[in-house]
Design brief:
Elements: H1 7-16, H2 18-28, H3 31-72, H4 74-80, E1 84-88, H5 91-98, H6 105-112, E2 116-121, E3 127-134, E4 137-138, H7 140-157, E5 161-167, E6 169-170, H8 172-179, E7 184-187
Parallel strand pairs: 3-5, 4-6, 5-7
Antiparallel strand pairs: 1-2, 2-3
Helix pairs in contact: 1-2, 3-4
Length: 196
């Protein structure tokens, strides 16, 4: 039989006999305390997933808020870009514009769900369009859609159509497109949505 005289000897014996350490742990700790490490791991994983969803939802809400603000202030956007707003094209007008020219439901869906298409007039009375994608942080996805929509509108109407993004921030590639004049940019204020 092993005789233990000091606490250090007890620790040494428990290190040498893991089954004794587990038996002692079971006697000293309640069931809840024994499962706490595994429970905490699951809690951490679930919390991470929830925070990811919340972050995604907040991004969606910011994007929706930005779109609402821009659509409500479309005349200001047109003026900022040097035009006078004549009107905004809704989904039905975009569908009529497309007619049977776009094949494939996905391409049609992307076009008619454009964030904002404005019919504008410049100072000389020349009519044009501005195809705008609105996002809190503009990405190449936004610019690609704006450029494709603008090209299609120009093809269909035979009138000039500018690609534009309205955003608070831009990814690096978007900054390059703006600097190169391929896309117009309307900077949006970086502020939280106001609750009425």
């Amino acid at each position: 039989m092993t005789t233990i005289s000091t606490f250090e000897e007890l620790l040494q014996v428990l290190d040498q006999n893991p089954e004794w350490a587990n038996a002692l742990r079971t006697r000293i700790l309640s069931g809840d305390l024994q499962t706490m490490p595994e429970d905490f791991r699951r809690f951490r994983e679930n919390t991470g997933r929830r925070l990811d969803r919340i972050s995604s939802d907040i991004g969606d809400l910011k994007g929706y808020y930005m779109r609402t603000q821009i659509v409500d202030g479309a005349a200001d956007l047109a003026e900022y870009l040097g035009y006078t707003l004549e009107g905004m094209l809704d989904r039905d007008q975009l569908r009529r514009m497309v007619g049977n020219r776009l094949t494939g439901g996905e391409r049609l869906s992307f076009f008619v769900s454009a964030d904002l298409v404005m019919r504008v007039v410049d100072q000389n009375g020349n009519r044009a369009y501005i195809a705008t994608e609105i996002s809190y942080t503009a990405s190449t996805r936004d610019t690609t859609r704006a450029i494709q929509n603008a090209a299609f509108i120009t093809l269909v109407t035979r009138e000039q159509c500018h690609a534009a993004v309205a955003s608070v921030r831009n990814e690096h590639q978007v900054e390059e497109l703006i600097a190169g004049g391929e896309v117009l940019w309307l900077p949006l204020p970086d502020r939280n949505p106001e609750v009425d």
